[in-house]
Structures are given as structure tokens and as C-alpha cells.
Amino acid sequence: MTAAPGTAARRGRSRTTDLTTGPLGRGIIVFALPLLGAALVQLLYSTVDLMFVGHALGTEAAAAVGASGLIVTCLIGMFTGLGTGTGVLVARHFGAGRHSQVDRVMHTALAFGLAGGTLLIPAMILIAPTLLAWLNTPDEILAMAVVYVRIYLLGLVSVVLFNMGAGVLRAVGDSLTPMLCQLLGGVVNVLVDALFIVVFRWGIVGAAAATLTSQTLCAVLVLLALRRLDERYRLRLTRFHLHRVTLREILAIGLPAGVQALVITLSNVAVQYRINGLGIPDIAAFTVWFRVENFLYMPVMALGQAASTSVAQNLGAEDRARTRRAVRVCCLIGVAVTSVLAVALLVASGPILGMFTADPQVIALTTSIARIIGPCYLLFALMEVLSSSIRGAGHALPPMIIIVSALCGLRVVLLAALPQVFGAVTRVAMLYPLSWVVTNALLLAYLLIRRAVLWGEPRD
Q1: CA-to-CA distance for 49 and 186, rounded, in angstroms?
Q2: CB–CB of 361/281 below 8 Å?
Q3: What single string gives the DSSP state of each residue in 142-175?
Q4: What does the sequence similarity comment in the record state about its family (predicted)?
Q5: Of 395, 407, 409, 402, whose CA–CA distance to 444 is shortest?
Q6: DSSP per position, 27-89
Q7: How far is CA 56 from each of CA 15, 47, 148, 201, 204, rounded to the nearest angstrom?
Q8: What's the confidence (pLDDT) of residue 284?
């Protein structure tokens, strides 16, 4: 076992969590908590944002924002994937103490994000009306939706740079700074919403402009944080360069992760299509469940990012035993956290669901959904940790293929082939644990077959 070079130099950085040394469980939890905080901040201010639009501008404006949600989600998913690719490479080099490589990956990623985002903006603005029409956006809100999307797209470079920069910071163990950036951006978003929508009365333009302002602020704050990193790999504008080999490495990990997020989003459209054909109470019940589920989903996603960074850092440090232990620890934490949260949800389902609806029928249907999916959520935690660990080892394509085929493909095929079987809300809910079981089985099989390649054979 070899200690990571440069470890001593990194210990003094107060916001950096070195996952190659110290108690592993504590380090993973400390690293994951700010990731969870960032997700909560994002959820909170997006909810407040929608409340401003719905209450101040009316139902049609809220629908226009919602209609553009799929385009926004797909774009964010792709760029988050590229941030993942950047983070995995940076974490690997950081764990090995290869500071010049950290510098190269960071500057290549940011240069690519700046160039790619700038080129993508005019193209996306041009085809926005066509995309919204394909999504069957009603004519009465199409114009507002186009305006919202086009203004949102002006901040595309900011979205890319934030995700790339946040990926770098998390890879070197600083998950707190991206959270603080998002927190400040969220506060500004709410304040600017009030200013643009309530005071200036800019309507849907004000809502989009508020989002653009907060995104730009988040990107600027992250870039400033990168300027304060260790002098051996801190951000310097003169270092921006598209290094071809490094860019290929980033895309080899980032593109599969981005495509995976994109396909998962699109597969959810198929599920929503089936739900929409069941009836108003069923639609409302799944809407409530998806809101409640966020509080199960977000800790799992934070833990997945922690698993990916921990695996990448420890593989960079050539500590194979600690790498395998990190995967086991993340799995145990994931099972424990989701089990506790699921039990709490089921025990207090009445008061929790009552926060979102007063309809007894909707509460009863949502409770049925929770009883099916909630106890099985530990399977989702295992799936996220295993796929993130494989990705952290630099193998992003296999988990993408497995998840796209088993998780997304299975749901779409079953819904299309057996519409009568999935003709009730509880049966649609069963698709989730069923697809998680199949996906986990395939991921575990891949891990067993390829464990020597991923992180070395156990030394028993």
C-alpha cells in the first residue's frame, strides 16, 4: 500500500477532505453532507421560484416554466455528466499527487466548457420552439415557454462552468464550497425573483432573468474558488488550453454519465405518460410522491458522488484495499440512511403527505405508492453506489449500458408490452423496485467479473 504523494501538503486545507487517509466512514460522511446540503438548497429555491411564478404570474406562466422543464433537465444532466468526468480524473490525479495533471484536466475541462457552451447557445436558441412543439406544449403557453427557455439558455456557459468547476472542487475533497455557492445563488435567485416579478412586473421574462442571474453568480463564485486552490493547480486564465488526450479522457467518462442522465429523464416521460392515462387522483398521487421522494433521493445521490470521489482518490493513491473498503462503507451507509428515512416516511406518512395535499383519496393512493417503493429504496442506494464506484474507477460506459438497458429500457418495454398489467397506480409503482433489482444484479455481476481490472483482487 502506497501513501498518496503530497498528502502532507493537503492536510492544511480546512475545506478539503482527503479520502485517502483517516477514518474512512467519517471522511465519507463529512464529504457527503455538503453535497446533500447543496441538493437541499437547489430543491428549496427551485420550489420558491415556482411559487413566485405560480402565485404572482398565474397558472399559465407556471405551466410555461414546467413545459420547459424537460429541456432544462436534459441539458443539466448532460453537463453534470461532463462535470463527473472531470471530477473522476482530477480525483485520480489528486490522490496520486500528480498536481500538473490536476492542472491540465481542470484547464482543459473549463476551456471545453467555455467553447462548447458558447457554440451551443445560438443553436439551442434557434431550435427551442421546435423542441417545445415536439414536447406537445399547448399553443396558449408556447410563446411564454419559448421566451423562458431562450433566456435560460443565455446562461448555458454559466451552467457548464459551474458544473465543471464544482466537479474539480469536489474531486480535491472540497464539497463545502460548491454548496455555499449554490446557497448564495439560491438566496439571490429568490430576491431577484421578488424584484423582477413583483416590483418590476417583468412577468415570465423576470423569472427567467432571475434564474440567469443566480446561475451566473454561482459560476463566478466557483471560478473564484478555483483561483484560491493550491498554487500548483489553481485556475489561471492563461492556462486555458484544449489538451486533446485529456479531453478524450474527460469525454470517455463524462459523455456516458451525461447520456445516462438524459435517457433516465426521457424514460420518465414514458412512465408519466402511463400515469397520465390513469386519472386525476393517480396523477396527483404520483406528483406528491415525487416531491416526497426527493428527501430519499438526495442523500443517495450525495453518497454516490462521495463513492465516486473516494474510489478515484484511493485508486490514484494505489491503495486498492482502501478502495474496496470505501465501496463497502458507502453501501452500508446507503442502506442504513435509506432504511431509516423510509421507516420515518411510512410511520409519519399522514402528516408528511398532508403537507402537500388535503385530498384523502390522493393521500391514500400516495401512501400505497410509498409502501411499495419506500422499503425498496435501499436497492436504489446500492445501485447508485455501485454504478458511481465503477465510474470512479474510470469505467463509465459499462454502468451506463447496464442502467440504460435494465433501468430505463425495462420500464419502457414493460409499459408498452403490458399496458393492462400496469393499469393501476400501485402496479406502475412496482416498476421501480423491479428495475432496481435487475440493475443491481447486473452491476454486481460486472463487479465480480471485472473486480481485478477495477481495483485489484482482494489480498485474503
Answers
A1: 9
A2: yes
A3: HHHHHHHHHHHHTTHHHHHHHHHHHHHHHHTT--
A4: Belongs to the multi antimicrobial extrusion (MATE) (TC 2.A.66.1) family.
A5: 402
A6: HHHHHHHHHHHHHHHHHHHHHHHHHHIIIII-HHHHHHHHHTHHHHHHHHHHHHHHHHHHHHH
A7: 40, 14, 16, 9, 10
A8: 78
Helices within 194-279 (DSSP H only): 204-227, 244-276
Q: Residue 21 is inside which H or E element, if any? A: none
The dihedral through the CA atoms of 253, 168, 99, 8 has a sign that is: negative
- Ranges of the chain whose pLDDT falls below 70: 1-17, 45-47, 50-51, 272, 455-460
Residues in the chain: 460
Q: Check: CB of residue 258 under 8 Å from CB of residue 264.
A: no
- The Cα–Cα gap between 338 and 326 comes to 18
User: Which sequence spans correspond to the domains of the chain?
Assistant: 23-242, 254-451
Distance CA 144, CA 58 (A): 12
Q: Which amino acid is located at 259 in the chain? A: V
Q: What's the 3-state SS for 88-127?
A: HHHHHHHHHCCHHHHHHHHHHHHHHHHHHHHHHHHHHHHH
Dist. CA 278–CA 267, nearest whole Å: 18
As a whole number of angstroms, the distance between CA 443 and CA 399 comes to 7
Helices (H), 277-409: 280-316, 320-347, 349-354, 360-373, 377-392, 397-402
pLDDT of 455: 67
Q: Which residue has the cell 452500508?
A: 332
CB 287 within 8 A of CB 148: no
Give the pLDDT confidence score for residue 428 in this predicted structure.
Answer: 86
What nine digits make up the cell of 334?
Answer: 446507503
Which residue is it, cell 446557497? Answer: 183
Q: List all residues 6 or more positions away from 8 whose beta carbon is below 8 Å from its beta carbon.
A: none
User: What is the reported pLDDT for 409?
Assistant: 86
Instruction: Find, among 131, 403, 427, 415, the residue nearest to 273 by Cα.
Output: 415
Q: 421 CB contacts (<8 Å, ≥6 apart)?
A: 414, 427
Alpha-carbon 420 to chain mean position: 33
Residue 226 burial (CB count, 10 A): 23
CA 14 to CA 17: how far, in whole Å? 8
Nearest Cα neighbor of 261 from 414, 101, 85 is: 85
The answer to whether the beta carbons of residues 91 and 392 sit under 8 Å apart is yes
The label of the residue with cell 428495475 reads: 435
71-to-112, 146, 344 alpha-carbon distances in Å: 21, 11, 34
User: Cell numbers at residue 271, please?
Assistant: 412512465
